[in-house]
């Protein structure tokens, strides 16, 4: 079930927020027109700085809607092709590991 689309807070944006059973899922959606970037997978699609902003926005979402005790994860969906509707869709569940730190995000600028 989709809970939110393009939700903004804390200097970040959550493309999609969904509920998978009792787990709150924060989804980053990336699209790419060229086929050259074949290994364009979830982890590589999101920089450390982007990840840090997504994680901050997710914390704000969880506090605002009282779901801080719910399990949560960060997924990445990549769409490759032009137009995107005809492309290859890949869904990487739990694409992020431990939270990114602000220092890591600054180095990634």
Description:
- The chain is α+β, with helices and mostly antiparallel strands and 109 residues long.
- It has one domain (2-107): Trna Endonuclease, Chain: A, domain 1 (3-Layer(aba) Sandwich), CATH 3.40.1350.
- Helices cover 25% and strands 38% of the residues.
- It has 3 helices and 5 strands; from the N terminus they run βββααββα.
- Strands 1-2-3-4-5 form a 5-stranded mixed beta sheet.
- Strand 2 and strand 3 form a beta hairpin.
Question: What is the global morphology?
Answer: globular
Q: What's the total number of strands? A: 5
Strand content: 35-45%
Helix content: 10-25%
Count of helical segments? 3
- So, CATH architecture? 3-Layer(aba) Sandwich
Number of structural units classed as domains: 1
Which topology does CATH recognise?
Trna Endonuclease, Chain: A, domain 1
Roughly what is the average pLDDT, rounded to an integer? 82
Strand line-up in the sheet with most strands? 1-2-3-4-5
H/E element string? Answer: EEEHHEEH
Largest sheet: 5 strands, mixed
Class based on secondary structure composition and strand pairing: alpha+beta
CATH class wording: Alpha Beta
Distance N to C terminus: 34 Å
Are there runs of 5+ residues with pLDDT below 50, and where?
none
The Rg value, from CA coordinates, equals 14 Å
């Amino acid at each position: 079930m989709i809970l939110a689309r393009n939700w903004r807070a804390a200097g970040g944006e959550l493309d999609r927020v969904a509920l998978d059973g009792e787990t709150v899922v924060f989804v980053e959606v990336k699209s790419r027109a060229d086929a050259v970037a074949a290994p364009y997978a979830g982890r590589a699609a999101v920089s450390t700085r982007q990840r840090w902003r997504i994680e901050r926005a997710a914390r704000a979402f969880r506090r605002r809607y009282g779901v801080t005790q719910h399990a949560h994860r960060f997924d990445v969906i990549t769409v490759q092709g032009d137009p995107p509707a005809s492309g290859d869709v890949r869904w990487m569940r739990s694409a992020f590991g431990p939270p990114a730190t602000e220092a890591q995000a600054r180095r990634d600028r």
